[in-house]
Structure formats: structure tokens, C-alpha cells
Amino acid sequence: MPILLEELYKTLEKKDNEIAMLKQEITNLKTTNNNQQQTLSDLSLKQLEIEESIKHLQSEHKNEREKSKKLAVKEIAAAKSTSPDKETQPPPTHTILNCTIPTANRFEPLSETNTPPTSNTPTKENTSPNTPPTENPINTPSPTEEPTNTQPTNKKLVNAETIILCDSNGRDLKPSVLCPDTPTYYIRCPTLTNGINIINEIQFPKAKTFIIHCGTNDLEQIDASQILVKLKTLENQLHKKYPQSR
Known about the structure:
Elements lengths: L1 H87 L45 E4 L18 E2 L4 E5 L8 H4 L5 E5 L3 H10 E2 L5 E5 L10 H18 L5
Parallel strand pairs: 2-5, 3-4, 3-6
Antiparallel strand pairs: 1-4
Helix pairs in contact: 3-4
């Protein structure tokens, strides 16, 4: 009998412990449930606030659309009311001034009538001693045939201060830029023989400067020693006929 009571006591104690544990679990579950309910309540409040904000924004959007429609109607009405005035308004008058702008340029290229054909390489020219040189007056009065005061003569007169004798290498030369302050006369001179003939056949009573650039074409026909002789002859003739020039 005492054994049964002791076992019963242990069983009751065990059951009491289990009941206590169950009570603790129930308490924890209730606490968790309360927390979840509180969270749910907070979320519901936030949802309500968001819905109210959305309704407010929708109302403002609707009001703005109505205002935009009213403004559009007013603009259309204003445009219709002002369109007749625009049609009857005379166009503005503009005064056009007639101005003459000088376009002359002393440094513009030579015209085709005053320059030989352009090329980057010297061309072989007619080297016949009897062929008269090609003359090209630039920036100077045209030569005139006048008798001298001492003896009558048929030689051509060139009243220029600067005389240029040049072969085809001077085809792009612009004497007005080279000698802008003096009357200049350009003569095409293919060879040294032509240069000697020019000095003998044309008179330059006002010549102060002679610019000579020829002899390139002579290299194809005579040797260097003969070229030097002709250069010296041309120089002597110039000094003899025009000692005041250089």
C-alpha cells in the first residue's frame, strides 16, 4: 500500500510539471498573439493613411485637370479674338540701305590676260635669236613710240622705272607686289639672246632698275662657258646704255 501511494505521488508531481509547462506555453502563445495583433493594427492604420493620401492626390489631380481644361479654353478664345487683328495689322517696314563696298585688292592674283600659263615646271621656249620677246606690261603706262629729241628713231619706248626680264619661271610673278611704289614693265625673255635683242630694240629712258632672270633654257643648247659670255655681254650693254640704272 505505501508503494502505491508513493507512485501515485510521483505521478501527480509529474503531471503538475507538465501542466505548468503547458501553462507557460499558453502564456507565450498569448503574448505572441497579442504582439501580432498589435502589428496588424498598426499596419491597418498605415493602410488607412495611405488610402487617404491616395484619395487626396486623386482629388488634387482632378482639380488640376479641370484648371488645365479651363486655361486651354481661355487660350483658344483669346487666340480667336486676336487673330483678326493680326490679319489686318500691316507688316513692318524695313529700310534697305544701298551701300557700295570696295572690293579691289592690290594683292589679288594676276588675270589670265596678263600672266603666262601656270605650271610648276619650267617649259622650253622658242630660243630663236630672231624671235621677238613676249612683252607683258604690268602696273605701268603702255609703251608709246615717240621720236627722241636728238635723232629720229623707230625703237619702242618703255617709260617704266623697273624693268623685269624673266623666262617662264616668272609666270606667277606679280610685279605690282614686288615693286608696288614704282611703274613696272614685265617682258617675257626666254633666253639670254632674247635679252640682248630686247636691250638693243627697246629704249628705257626712265629705267632705274633692271631685274633679269633668264638663262635656264640656254642650258639645253649651249654650255656654261657660253652662258657666262652672254651674261657678261648683256650686263655690259645695260651699263653702257643705262649707266644710271642698277
